């Protein structure tokens, strides 16, 4: 065959020769062979290599071997190119439908055997479940066809090309094609045959496709079957043994809806499935049916008559080593983890997942928004000119994608909404896709966020709406226009249920304000919750120059254009470790609410339909975090949406310790996703007796001194602390800087932001402008009394006249060393501050400080707008575990509301620090880390931090909130930290 530029790469058409219509991904008993495994592989830099490799007799001895499924850029240690990460940008010139000649092209070959007994098969079908982005197929040298639609299934009839015995299949995969313009999702570009390849024998008299549409209404189930089979294949039998259903349809015309009694409904909470078979004499198909009815009534989205609240996540398919290659065991663990964290919904952003994922969602119980493989986001840069969503030339491509999406997965009870795609502007092709779905499936609504005005979709959906805007959408009281809507369109949108298909951008340390959104969902029934962006980081496991493993993000593979660490925005780190945000989410959306009132507690079941029979309730009382009593709490059964009162136990209140009552709701029995005893909801009640805070002892007889002295366990030279309890310690030094979080580094959009922000400028830039990361000190005075030392420092930054006066008073109070720091900013500071704290350095002595025990909020880090997962108690952690390994190092580890802290070295207690609240009752927090904020801020990856044995203790009078500004609202004003005077009081003693 002549060498030529492949004609296919610029074809807008979705391919040629694949079987249509698409059909369900079914579990059939007909013979099939997996063609997964080792294939021969050759990578070429362009699409123009000769096609002779497809010939029957071609000798591929010199080729490499590659596993299928896989992405070639993740195989061969970089020998086959490297991944590219972009969010919105196209990593090639925007020249639709053309792509560059530099178009990595992978040729694949393998032999396979067709058994002799397949000769009675009516047809032999070759199925590809996922190939990125365009591929052509040959069998025994015969060209079979081509297809695009990377995350969609494509089947080819290869009957006339195969023979009994040995066969050769050859596949050519182009990384770039016209299809790349409609697959511009925010993720790594990962070419290759990355899902299963299967050869299927289709029998005469088999079932081509089946759709069991189920319904549920007040204890009655219904099944409406659609059977695609030749008339000669009949009779067709439907069996649901557990329900006593055995129904035979003699001929196609007999297929009619059935009513089924004694049915338990399917819900995400109680995912009741019934095994079913649909069979002919030649083929039997196994399905698991769940009975549920999805409807929109007014502005409410209901399943089985009850309103659904989506506590969801956006789920991409991503794995640090396999990319988008599906691993069922890992996916099951991931979904079980979601359930453990009270997540009840998944949006399959932004394409259909591996089909088995939906079997798992049916089984474990999730409300699924199943999204089509469509995103044309890069056209935004061209003001959407030429957008495939609105160009008739692309209509068939768009329709082909949505048909393949719906047809493949239509049997799943977990799927309650179809979504047309993501960030593809708007246009006639999207409207046509929606019309097709409406005609095909009347049982599920259609979602697409980009249909702002609600012309062709059923749900009002938005992403990253701020809290006030969400409230405006939820409340009936306002007539103001919605985003991009005329008043009439706004009114139309207000008649629909609302959901946030993306919100709370979980990039790095953040987001804040989960609880503010949840409060709105509780208040306004039209608001149906949403889907956090996103479930997990997409880091790719790589090796640093020093040999350390790390999780790579955009730019780490020297991509020409990339979007940095915007791909690391999950509530789970790349290595499956839940971040504090996931714990926060779990606490905010907990399905049981406790409201204390005197000696009683009101228990409200916030679930969709499940009662509390699967839960047991426990209480415990702690004195300063030490358990003193516990027991079971008798709570009457609470139906979904109802409340019940229960009596609280008698709590023994300690006179000289804090007394806290904690209630947990836990699983009474193991489930498929968590063991018995797994806690799903918690509440705490402070029962402490009021205790006075020791007043500050006035001292009058200050006189100048040289500041070299000892006070209890503290030794000072020149007014500066040098030792505590015999070990080197320096400080306190004013610390106003935190290693900026991703949200801190994100420019303000100037909309609805606090007065302190500057449009287009990040908080971190303002902090650096003001020199918060490079403060210097001038000692103004040193004074003592008989048992006290006082220093006054003026702290400011180069080329700035702004300053902070810091007065530190060391004294002996009640026989203990007390440090009081008075922090007072000058006038003129314009921005929010990241923190107001003091830092101590504990350099490596013979035994470095390597851990902490504390009584305060824990166990994980908390910030002013992300406090709900914190509970008051006693906790301990190593210095390493006090920090979260965010993919890009940043502020981490702040523990709020500290009462008492013990620094440890191994099992030795080194220093005790007791924290006194300020006159307004506010308590500081602490951070203990191996690195200073300045060091952390300089590192782009954890491996760049270097080893250290010095520990840095920062006691913060206050910290700034987290917000969600990387993609969404800034820190809510109430949680923003403004320059202000603060006092920190500590009592320090030897361990
Ligand atoms: C939004 C995208 O839909 C999502 O895929 C992801 O990229 C997210 O942003 C950010 O991580 S689009 C955004 C421009 C609002």
From TrEMBL:
Keywords: Glycosidase, Hydrolase. GO terms for molecular function: beta-galactosidase activity; carbohydrate binding. Residues 717-989 form the Beta galactosidase small chain/ domain. Its EC number is 3.2.1.23. Residues 737-762 are annotated as: Disordered. The keyword Hydrolase applies. GO terms for biological process: lactose catabolic process. Gene3D superfamilies: 2.70.98.10, Galactose-binding domain-like (2.60.120.260), Glycosidases (3.20.20.80), Immunoglobulins (2.60.40.10). It catalyses: Hydrolysis of terminal non-reducing beta-D-galactose residues in beta-D-galactosides. It comes from the Bacteria. Residues 742-756 have a biased composition (Acidic residues). The keyword Acetylation does not apply. SMART domains: Bgal_small_N. PANTHER family: BETA-GALACTOSIDASE. Belongs to the glycosyl hydrolase 2 family. This is Beta-galactosidase. It comes from Streptomyces liliifuscus. The lineage of its organism: Bacteria, Bacillati, Actinomycetota, Actinomycetes, Kitasatosporales.
